[in-house]
Amino acid sequence: MSPLKGTLFERCFRTVPKIRVENRPQDIMIIKGKVHKLGDDINTDNIISAKYLVSGDAAELGKHCLEAIRPDFVSKVKEGDIIVAGKNFGCGSSREHAPLAIKGCGIQAVIARSFAAIFFRNAINIGLPFLESEEADRIDDGDLLEIDLSGGIINNLSRKQSYKTQVFPAFLQEIVKVGGLLNYVKKRKR
């Protein structure tokens, strides 16, 4: 059996049929924020401890995001910041609480060398942009990034460097803009 080729993102979306989206975004979707750098194998228990799973409220979960490995994380995050991590980000359980906690504390995107498949799916469900980049190691804590989701470019404004990532398909940009898959489906049914 031959090994799977391409990133998880590429394998999942190379055969996605073109979806006609009402009010498809015509503008370029840009995300700009300060980096919070994490390592490899950040699991869902690291992201949000099981003791907080009694809530499904993003803001409440966000108050405890990453406290198991970085107790001061939430106090350092500003609305619009970006997480950059190594490989296998979001491994562990299938809880949707993990990306919800990330979004709830103010993080607007996650860049990693690779993602666990279940985190990838849950991030789509809640409208959290995620980008795979082999060059994530070149980005440091505190760098200021500007991400062009439509063009597949990550600009490191602090280092004056650019890195390639996948183009975020228009329908995923629309899911992000409306706040998640459920809102996207509701909007399309109207």
Question: Could you describe the 3D structure shown?
Answer:
By secondary structure, this protein is of the alpha/beta class. The protein has helices at residues 8-13, 44-47, 58-62, 73-76, 97-104, 117-126, 170-178, 181-189, and strands spanning 30-37, 82-85, 109-112, 130-132, 144-148, 153-156, 161-164. A 7-stranded mixed beta sheet has the order 4-3-2-1-5-6-7, covered by helices on one side. Strand 6 (153-156) and strand 7 (161-164) form a beta hairpin. Helix 5 (97-104) packs across helix 6 (117-126) and helix 7 (170-178) crosses helix 8 (181-189). The radius of gyration is 16 Å and the shape is globular. The chain starts with 7 loop residues before the first helix and ends with a helix. The model is unreliable at 11-25 (pLDDT under 50).
Strands, total number? 7
Helix content: 25-40%
Query: Helix and strand string, N-terminal first?
Result: HEHHHEHEHEEEEHH
- Oligomer state equals single chain
Uncertain runs are: 11-25
Strand content: 15-25%
Q: Determine the N-to-C terminus distance.
A: 45 Å
Average pLDDT confidence is 87
The gyration radius over C-alpha positions equals 16 Å
Strand order of the largest sheet: 4-3-2-1-5-6-7
Q: Outline, from the CA principal axes?
A: globular
Main beta sheet strand tally, sense and closure: 7 strands, mixed
By secondary-structure content and strand pairing, the structural class works out as alpha/beta
The helix count comes to: 8
